[in-house]
Write a structure and sequence with these properties.
alpha+beta; 7-stranded antiparallel beta sheet; two-stranded antiparallel sheet; 10 helices; 9 strands; globular
């Protein structure tokens, strides 16, 4: 009889995952960062290695962790296309035992990334107030005491145990439409979790390797199509996105504004991390032109702030917001063009890949 009873405590080995966070990143990068750190990798080197623009019309979801990816459903590969990081969305196979997948992953010493509704988690400022789709890292499950161990680097930051009932409510939430957070509510959580495969080996970031990565990303920016097979890509895709955003706002289309905020966060986060990495490597390798390229890419991230905030404040009156959006998107396009040019200049200063 005892042999047929599954263990009721499941936990990754060793210390709880470290928290990893950057101001312009979202819970998507923060949770993957925690998993990467635990595996012994530098999150900035992995998550900041790529910089691209991709917009997939009609796909944007009202979730903090939305990110457009060329690799169907694989957010890990989408945010780290130059490394062997992959992930897949899972939902319980057996509705009568929804925790089975989490138990199996934890027993295999793999933390999982779970989608949750902030409204139900006691440590979130939105507790019993605001509905919003968010991600947390789950590293333990104690069914004997009714606890789930969670790491969440997003401010105010938390690492510890929450009642299992609270986690289940957050994990199974309908995340209904909430006027207090129109951008990340109205998206069912559905007991989803990300099964992350860190993979390997992870190549060392050398000047030669970085030169190859920058060339590949710069080519995507300069040759990407406004209506490419994966969506609107590169500088042409950016032009299409911004022109349609302004035109739809001027026509009073609230969907244009609604999608802007979650979509823009992914692009902003990626630019921020890529810029920081280039700046760090430029300083370490004594290459001012590379550090300068990093600052130019970071300027793209900051230009996204103006676009996203203008959209957020213009949600109730898109047509009035169209003028300010036209100005802010013009700045954004200039920053992208300047950063791509700086990227190409920095490539010339790096040794060619072998």
């Amino acid at each position: 009889m005892a042999a047929d009873t599954p263990p009721r405590v499941h936990h990754v080995t060793g210390a709880p995952p470290e928290l990893w966070y950057r101001d312009l990143a979202s819970c998507l990068q923060a949770t993957f960062g925690a998993v990467l750190l635990r595996a012994g990798h530098d999150p900035l080197e992995v998550l900041g290695a790529a910089w691209q623009f991709l917009y997939r019309p009609g796909e944007v979801r009202s979730e903090e962790f939305y990110f457009p990816t060329r690799y169907e459903g694989d957010l890990g590969r989408g945010i780290a296309p130059h490394h062997p990081l992959t992930s897949a969305w899972r939902t319980p196979d057996d509705p009568a035992d929804p925790l089975a997948g989490l138990r199996a992953a934890l027993d295999a010493d793999r933390p999982v990334i779970a989608a949750v509704d902030n409204h139900h988690l006691p440590f979130r400022p939105a507790y019993h107030d605001v509905h919003a789709a968010h991600l947390v890292t789950v590293f333990g499950l104690d069914e004997y005491r009714g606890l789930v161990h969670i790491a969440d680097a997003t401010p105010p930051a938390f690492r510890g145990a929450v009642p299992l009932d609270a986690f289940l409510a957050a994990w199974d939430s309908a995340n209904p439409s909430d006027v207090q957070d129109a951008f990340f509510s109205d998206s069912r959580i559905g007991r989803r979790w990300l099964d992350v495969e860190v993979g390997g080996p992870y190549p060392q970031t050398t000047p030669e390797r970085l030169a190859g990565l920058l060339r590949a990303d710069a080519e995507l920016f300069t040759t990407g199509k406004a209506d490419g097979p994966d969506g609107a890509e590169g500088l042409a895709g950016l032009a299409r996105f911004t022109e349609e955003l302004v035109d739809r706002s001027r026509a009073g289309d609230p969907a244009a504004i609604r999608d802007l905020y979650p979509f823009g966060w992914g692009m902003q986060a990626q630019a921020s991390l890529h810029g920081e990495l280039l700046r760090r490597l430029g300083a370490a390798w004594h290459l001012p032109v590379l550090a300068g390229a990093g600052r130019a890419v970071e300027a793209v991230a900051h230009a996204w702030t103006g676009v996203r905030m203008t959209g957020a404040h213009g949600r109730e009156d898109p047509s009035t917001a169209a003028g300010p959006l036209a100005r802010h998107t013009a700045v954004l396009r200039r920053r992208y063009a300047e950063a791509v040019e700086a990227l190409l200049e920095s490539v010339d200063a790096l040794p060619a890949p072998a």
